[in-house]
Prior knowledge:
Chain A is an alpha/beta fold. Helix content of chain A is 39%, strand content 26%.
Amino acid sequence: MTLDPSVTAGLLVIGDEILSGRTKDKNIGTIADHLTAIGIALREVRVVADVEPSIIEAVNALRHRYTYVFTTGGIGPTHDDITADAIAKAFAVSIDVDPRAVAIMRPAYEKRGIELNAARLRMARIPAGADLIVNEVSVAPGFRIGNVIVMAGVPSIMESMLHSATAVLQTGAKVVSASIVVSHAEGEIAELFAAHQSQWPQVAMGSYPAFKDGQYATDLVLRSTDPVALSSAYNTLTAKLSEYGFSFVVT
Amino acid sequence: MTLDPSVTAGLLVIGDEILSGRTKDKNIGTIADHLTAIGIALREVRVVADVEPSIIEAVNALRHRYTYVFTTGGIGPTHDDITADAIAKAFAVSIDVDPRAVAIMRPAYEKRGIELNAARLRMARIPAGADLIVNEVSVAPGFRIGNVIVMAGVPSIMESMLHSATAVLQTGAKVVSASIVVSHAEGEIAELFAAHQSQWPQVAMGSYPAFKDGQYATDLVLRSTDPVALSSAYNTLTAKLSEYGFSFVVT
Lengths: 251, 251
């Protein structure tokens, strides 16, 4: 059971290095936390290789399905950075070095003693009709075209762009959550918990195996966009657990 | 540029807790490393919620596209564990408590003093025609149906199932890799590196920004299923880097 939120998002992680295992992705968790906190529901993530048709297909699938699509990776200066061109093709628009991007990059690079060579100018290639996204870490901007927000893959740069980009997005009701650690295995608590879920359809209830002091335990997580329903579902659950003699810790 | 391997895989991570940010996925990296090591190329990952139509759609999309599909999550004893039923629907087969699974679970549970109640019997629900996958951690098995391998989400249990399942899979040529850390920013090295990629189409070359001793640096990664080509591409790259005065460390 999942909540039916008003503002949704898909995430597309682009990069051979994630699929080969060489780089362990950290952006999915960061973006999931951030979107949950601001009231955008992340509904799907895809990871694809640095292959143009794969990027185009995934972007087009996701952008028609969710309010927003975030992408990470593939906007650097090297030949394997093909995201901006793939996005332009997905939207069937042209792409070229954007004077607005150059105007940001040139003085910042001069100040840092970095040459704005042909490779680095690749990072100023922006699809026609896109808005730039501020990068406070390494200057070369991300961009937004339609409902697609294109960000770097390096976590610190991605975070800067994520905060720049999401400041102006439409957001929905925030999901509030509460959790209880029960000192019993999932299989002991399952029947009671399923009955409780049936009673509170507006609250999404998940159960996750855990360990506590070397013993089996279970995290019960309740989530809802309705704080009153969450509170009631939570209170009646703790009452039921007590009634049936399950010991638990409120977290 | 990505290698064109003979044996490919897709991965489907199932769980609201990943999309909400509550749980940070660790299985993608583990599975990517393992598949790379045994000669199966992971080509795509999707993360979807605990929602039946989402699981069915993703499984069906991936299983027709890749040699194998691995799934993680949603095969526990609670009401939010809906993966087995969703997989049965994706394959249009029936699903019921499987005597083979019960025969494994009952004696092991008795030995551990765990009651095989109705909730735990949910974990013995296996789609018709599936083979069981051994779980050395918590006994309740995973399963394989067609080219789809269904595993638990808890990392230790997933790892046990992954090793059980992949022991009998078809594998392809292993990808070998080599990397060089250049003590220069990506933008300095990009032109030379792009020219080198053009010269060695059978070797996939990726560039990743890094830091070394507080300075900008770049990891250059070369990957190929052809060890001879890899070695030649690697040696000519280090020669070129030296010729053009770029300092680097072989890793």
